[in-house]
Amino acid sequence: MACKTERFSSDIQTTLEDFKTSGWEEAFTGPHSQRLAIAADALAKKGQKALEEGNASQSKALWLLADACSMMLQPSSLNEPYKPYIISRSGRSAIPDDFSDADLDFFLMILPSIDNPGIKARLSDLIWLKKRSRVELALDAIDSYIESPITLESFSGEGGHSWIRAIQLARVLRHAAGDRMKNIKERLLEAFRNASEEEGFLAKWIADLLKGFGLGAGHEHEIAEKLVSLAESFKLQSDFYRVREYYESSSYWFGKAEKEVESFKSIACQAEAWHTEAALKEAASDFIGSSHALEKAIQVYRSIPNKHRASVGMEEGKLQQMQSHLGKIGKMAADSMTLVSTPCVDITDMVSESRLLVRGKPVLEALKTMTNFYPGAKKVKVRVAAEEILTQFHFGSFFGFAVRSRDGRIVAKNPGIAIAPKGSEEYEQAVWKEMLQTYYLDICTAVAGRTIPALETMLMEHRLQLRDFESICRESSIVPPERALAFAKALFYGYDLDFDSAIHRLVPQVENMVRYHLKAAGAVTTDLDRDGIEVEVNLSSLLKRPQALLIFGEDLIFEMQAIFCESRGPNFRHHLAHGLLEDKDFETAFAVHAWCLALRIVFNVFWNSQRKE
What we know:
Elements: H1 16-20, H2 36-52, H3 56-70, E1 72-73, E2 82-83, E3 87-88, E4 91-92, H4 101-110, H5 117-130, H6 135-145, H7 152-156, H8 159-173, H9 180-194, H10 202-212, H11 220-236, H12 240-256, H13 260-283, H14 287-302, H15 306-309, H16 318-336, H17 347-358, H18 363-371, H19 379-391, E5 401-404, E6 410-414, H20 425-461, H21 466-475, H22 484-495, H23 499-520, E7 526-528, E8 534-536, H24 539-542, H25 546-565, H26 572-577, H27 589-609
Antiparallel strand pairs: 1-2, 3-4, 5-6, 7-8
Helix pairs in contact: 2-3, 5-6, 6-8, 9-10, 11-12, 12-13, 13-14, 14-16, 14-27, 17-20, 18-20, 19-20, 20-27, 21-22, 22-23, 23-25, 23-27
């Protein structure tokens, strides 16, 4: 859907009669028609037909309504809650700033004749967003938003966002909102009480909504008990994923109710669900999935303080037994792993092929394909290629050179190697430099020919939300348990094409991930300074710890060094820490690849852990 200014002139006047006789209601009939984005497409088609029939004013009325309906509600931002439905190289669909004062006056004119709560909420909110003086419109928007039913189907679509937006508006208006916030809280609590296991995650989503806006005060113990009850129901169905999610949520609410022992018992039940699933997958010879589940069980158990482990039923030595068994399962899992790879083609064919391989696939398969188009560098192969290049004579091999930053500082040096003996320090430096150049060329090609075309196709076909990435991160044992949401935000922002936010969140989470696993392996991740103060070392030093090679492997360490720590490359860790990144740095292939690399690390662990059909 193109921007409205490309379709009709601003001097075309529309009347209420044009709107009433346009047949706009027909766009809201049929399956899924209550979803505004689907209705927007129907409105746009009617607008085009009216234009072809010579009725420009009626066409404009339909197009304006189509543009208003096409915007995606993303209430994570209070002041910019609407995002374009489509973003492409040629443009984007409508956003609030596209609408003129005359357009808003048109919406204000037609509002009394609209009884559809979805459209009424959208138009009222849009006008209030642009004209804050019209408080009554914000109140109308709240009342219309909360007409959205609190059901699994509704909350899986736009319903959850409607309630979030209503809460946001009520909080901003404060006293002017009257009893609306109280009414919202009571309706959410009532829906939560009535939620059943047949409605899947609905109860948890409501509990998360109450948690996010602090609306559960005084009901913490009741909420926790309900979540435990549902977790037990899912346990009978061997639905381990929901069991874990519900127990984890109940742990939070027991904590808020100051029921410390019950809170840790919920964590223990969450860990036991992982442990049970690991045993079942091992029995089914799914050693990869079993290894992943067992590692997650150990991680969750470790989060329970020692003094509380006996009270929640943890036998002494249980963690040691599980860790020992994990080693055995890990060896069997290594034998069953396969490498995901794609054939090498030139850049022209790459783009078409990438889109084709992602198009029409279920969301997880599409995500797997996109993240693994570039399967990761093989350090040994990169070195062989670099040494082969160095054996070919070129004049520059006689001279060393310095690598400078954009502000003129020398950040790296490379000596000439024409006479450097093989194995010398000078030779190794030159090989390393050539390895980096080879790698950077490869990823630039991969981003342009693979990642970006595939991502554009994904965005057209799949609307992944933050909670989707959070679920992946929670199920991926590579992500530290307490950082699932933080890591998910970094991955979500990249999928949302906001690589500025993605890199700012991603870099510290990658470093924390490395530190977490090194500590778990017994590595020392700190150094003593001259005053005897123990300080954490940075990512570059962490990757040089001997345990890192055992945990991550030389290939992944090479990639993380090249992207996050290498002064000859993007060096995101250093530049971010010292405030040296500029806006243009987030528009590079390196930024896109850094996001895709992190997504590949997290997603592949998640994917390999899933039950084999």
